[in-house]
Design goal:
The chain is an alpha+beta fold. The protein has a domain of about 90 residues. It is built from three helices and five strands, in the order αβββαβαβ. Strands 1, 2, 3, 4 and 5 form a five-stranded mixed sheet that branches. The longest helix has 21 residues. The radius of gyration is 22 Å and the shape is elongated. About 5% of the residues have low confidence.
Length: about 130
């Protein structure tokens, strides 16, 4: 009987130790975003660098929760700080930083091809913040 108890205890301890190192919490991957603000009435396109958004987890479908609020953050910055109303803002996001950087390069390149003037918003000027819940 004691032999079975020790064996069971050893199996349980092994399972607990192995589980602690192999199980991942859902959503422990960082989320990166970048944004673009463009207007049909202006040749200037504002864009951000790829930024890490702190404490954000993609939902079960792989979407950025409250993504429209990130677009509004960029829109408000462009409208009130740059004094450029009527801009449309788009947000791109990913858990893979290098993939998102390639996407950002592609998006900026498309605007440059159309002779748009690109204006980088440095992180010191504008950075995305996690919306209040």
């Amino acid at each position: 009987m004691m032999k079975y108890v020790r064996m069971l205890l050893a199996v349980v301890v092994t399972f607990v130790v192995c589980s602690a190192f192999t199980m991942k919490k859902g959503g422990d991957k960082p989320v990166y975003v970048f944004g673009v603000a463009a207007s049909f009435n202006d040749t200037v396109v504002y864009y951000t660098s790829v930024q890490l958004v702190d404490s954000v987890v993609l939902d079960k479908h792989g979407f950025l929760p409250q993504r429209e609020l990130y677009a509004y953050q960029l829109k408000n910055y462009v409208e009130y700080e740059q004094h450029k109303p009527n801009y449309t803002c788009m947000i791109y996001f990913s858990e893979n930083k290098s993939k998102l950087e390639r996407e950002a390069t592609k998006v900026v390149g498309k605007y440059q091809k159309n002779n748009m003037s690109m204006q980088l918003l440095k992180k010191e000027e504008f950075s995305f913040k996690k919306p209040e819940e």
